[in-house]
Design goal:
By secondary structure, the chain is an alpha/beta fold. It contains twelve helices and ten strands.
Length: 328
């Protein structure tokens, strides 16, 4: 039976294992077919998943369109989140680049309209800004942005509003969570290697009842245990950049050291890595990518409510590995 948690103040009752839909967009993750993606979605829902996280930029809307097609024949209640891409198309958000260059009002409106159309006319249950910087709160454009979000919520154009935090920078969203009641959820990188959200972000989210969507739980595949020294990927595959050069060789001893720990209370490293994420009470749901029915079934099995023991979690803290492999 899949464990459920409520996403902050939204009231959305979510499965602790959600469906990360970047890969099925077939834009930067190579290998997914639409038939296989639909099968993965169906399998995930059959195994208790009721939350899908996508974005307009995933396959230039293709992920959203696949989700709409799938949901047109789905009778179960599914919560769908999507994201407004930065207008300047830069991830992560750069310092000192003003809000007007990243999320101008018309861009937010147009992106939402496109996403709603891609989703078959369905309003997003959760609309997120795909990058964030706290410095925007002090800019003269922010009040108008906040007013637009209020209008979207009041008119039921979106169900709730959240932000996706810059890669490996959980501290970059603390101010907005303290000052802006519009933010109902945050999406943040959280895994065995990057445990930094535990220091300040998670306690603040618990204090203010803000939902947490944990992304990149498997370190883009690094925590599957399948990427060895010398591994290569196709030029069009996102992982060719993430695991470029000698990074696979740098990764391998870290994974080898983790393997006996992550499989101490789980059958596989993937299961152990997912159980690590949902063992933290601040995390509402974790969103691994699922491009095959087999992966979907295995991932969802980790959401059965069994958490890692306190002793194992304590030992895993020593395996945090701060770094940022994302290309500039």
């Amino acid at each position: 039976m899949m464990e459920h948690r409520v996403l902050g103040r939204t009231g959305f009752d979510l499965s602790v294992i959600g469906f990360g839909a970047w890969g099925i967009g077939a834009g930067q993750w190579i290998g997914a077919t639409d038939v296989q993606s639909a099968a993965a979605l169906r399998t995930a829902m059959e195994h208790g998943c009721n939350f899908i996280d996508t974005a307009l930029v995933y396959g230039d809307g293709h992920s959203e369109e696949l989700i709409a097609k799938f949901l047109s024949g789905e009778s179960r209640r599914v919560t769908v989140a999507t994201k407004v891409p930065p207008h300047n198309m830069l991830w992560p958000a750069r310092r000192y680049v003003p809000l007007r260059d990243v999320f101008p009002l018309e861009h937010i409106r147009a992106s939402l309209a496109t996403s709603t159309r891609n989703l078959g006319g369905r309003r997003p249950d959760l609309l997120q800004l795909h990058v964030w910087r706290d410095e925007w709160l002090d800019e003269k454009e922010w009040p108008a942005t906040a007013k637009l979000i209020e209008q979207l919520l009041a008119t039921n154009a979106i169900g709730a509003f959240g932000i996706s935090i810059n890669d490996h920078e959980p501290q970059s969203a603390l101010k907005v969570l303290r000052q802006c009641a519009l933010v109902s959820s945050v999406q943040v990188i959280y895994n065995v290697f990057d445990q930094s959200p535990e220091r300040e972000l998670f306690p603040l989210c618990q204090e203010r009842n803000i939902g947490v969507i944990a992304r990149v739980p498997l370190d883009e595949g690094g925590l599957t245990g399948n990427i060895k020294a010398g591994a290569t990927f196709g030029a069009d595959d996102f992982r060719a950049q993430y695991f470029k050069g000698d990074r696979p060789a740098e990764l391998q001893p870290k994974v080898d050291a983790l393997r006996p720990l992550l499989t101490e209370e789980a059958a596989t490293m993937v299961e152990g890595a997912l159980r690590f994420c949902i063992s933290h009470p601040a995390v509402t749901t974790v969103i691994p990518g699922m491009r095959t029915p087999e992966h979907a079934a295995a991932n969802c099995a980790a959401g059965d409510g069994r958490h890692l023991t306190a002793g194992l979690l304590k030992r895993l803290k020593a395996h945090a590995w701060p770094r940022n492999w994302y290309p500039e």
